[in-house]
Structure to design on (237 residues):
């Protein structure tokens, strides 16, 4: 009633001699269709740049259907026009260069700090987070210290928003009975623009720390001691 609904659609589009599997995620806000949906696009057969171009084209089409149900029309449109979108897409190398230079489509490079309550299916969960970070061009750390689990991400703000949608809507863990479930015990501790004094992470790494001092050192090295002091100690109480 307050957040709208989110759902996934997988479609297979025949291109040349291969099938392209598109994984589309739509978040429909409460006042949809008067407000545009949020859209996320992933595909193992396309580069990240191509997925972003597909998303942009879908949003362009969505504006033409504002105030009327549009998801079905968007799916039909991309099935018909995927080839032309792919041909016009910038090479993946251009996107990588953009990210490495700190350029962004919205408000510079952003940083997100999340707290997870637990991981029951740890191995699968970690693999999923690594894939999401890779697909979205995000860097940072998945940090374990005792019972504390933190996710620190840096990257394009739009991609961080997409990550949050995936984190909150995907079945990434299992419940006490072993059944797949969505992540309900997650807290957004901080979401802010990366400042000049902050170190830019070059990759996404999974790290475990034996003591709080080791974890604090990680934040200090990245120029994020203020972030640590404000948000991490309270988690120990």
């Amino acid at each position: 009633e307050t957040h709208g609904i989110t759902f996934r659609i997988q479609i297979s589009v025949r291109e040349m001699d291969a099938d392209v599997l598109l994984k589309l995620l739509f978040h429909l806000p409460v006042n949809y269709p008067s407000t545009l949906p949020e859209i996320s696009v992933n595909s193992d057969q396309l580069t990240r740049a191509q997925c972003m171009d597909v998303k942009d084209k879908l949003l362009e089409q969505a504006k033409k259907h504002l105030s009327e149900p549009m998801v079905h029309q968007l799916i039909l449109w991309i099935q018909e026009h995927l080839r032309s979108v792919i041909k016009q897409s910038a090479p993946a190398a251009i996107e990588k260069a953009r990210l490495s230079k700190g350029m962004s489509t919205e408000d510079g490079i952003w940083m997100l700090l999340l707290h997870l309550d637990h991981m029951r299916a740890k191995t699968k969960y970690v693999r999923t987070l690594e894939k999401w970070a890779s697909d979205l061009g995000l860097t940072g750390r998945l940090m374990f210290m005792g019972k504390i689990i933190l996710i620190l991400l840096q990257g394009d703000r739009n991609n961080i928003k997409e990550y949050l949608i995936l984190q909150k809507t995907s079945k990434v863990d299992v419940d006490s009975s072993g059944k797949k479930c969505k992540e309900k015990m997650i807290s957004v501790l901080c979401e802010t623009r990366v400042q000049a004094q902050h170190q830019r992470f070059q990759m996404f790494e999974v790290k475990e720390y034996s003591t709080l001092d080791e974890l604090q050192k990680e934040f200090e090295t990245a120029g994020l001691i203020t972030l640590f002091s404000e948000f991490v100690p309270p988690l120990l109480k």
User: Anything to note?
Assistant: Residues 110 and 144 are 22 Å apart (CA to CA).
